Amino acid sequence: MGYQSIVAPVLALVLPVAGCNKSNPADSRNQPAASVSQQANASEPPVYSFEVVRAYPHDPAAFTQGLIFAGGFLYESTGLNGASSLRKVDLTTGRVLQKVDVPVQYFAEGLTLFRGKLFQLTWQAHKGFIYDQGTFAMEKEFPYDVEGWGLTHDDQFLIMSDGSNQLRFIDPTDFQVKKTISVMDKGRPLFELNELEYIKGEIYSNIWHDDRIARIDPASGKILAWISLAGLLSAQERGGQENVLNGIAYDEVEDRLFVTGKRWPKLFEIRLKKQS
Prior knowledge:
The protein is mainly beta. It is built from two helices and 22 strands.
């Protein structure tokens, strides 16, 4: 999730914080995984820019750590000790329809919906929570031995980031790590992988304090493409330096890609455009 540099002003108040998403050839919307994988054989991964399809209101107090879209609604995990929560949000209005607060000792992190259950990470407590999607009743806790940052899933495993360049594939029944991949950029480790979303066979990952999203091959850890979101929200609208890009959600039914950030006043539906 990434939060070390904001710690100093609040150390005396809280626990430390840190840690720390319809193919149409005419508009190049969310290029299919196969085509990007083929392009990735070149020496440099392709770079995509964006156009904003629509901007929606987003709670400017929400320190977004995890974001998903399902059944017509956004589900969001917000962080900070004493402000962490799980939310169901109306996309159009940004209104919080349902919310459960996370106990003050936990700093909530990544979120995913898998097999009808909401899985939510915490940053340094080595503990995650499993909720009923409908009631938000917390049903179970699950352990892990690293920091919790981002969370998504494929058709078999939970996929988790911990701030390093490693992604762990975790069995959702016994929570054992079944596979680990190392994400490399031009032969070097790509650190601070943050919020995750599995889209069309690729892992999309925010990079903490970076306005780019990496599109990652889940088999090899290779960077398939980059998405540059520089300029999506102005520095003035962002406010503080820790209000970084973080939050990727994908609508499988309508093939829509959404992004937002920590304490951003807006959430954006974007369309990807390949840079020349």
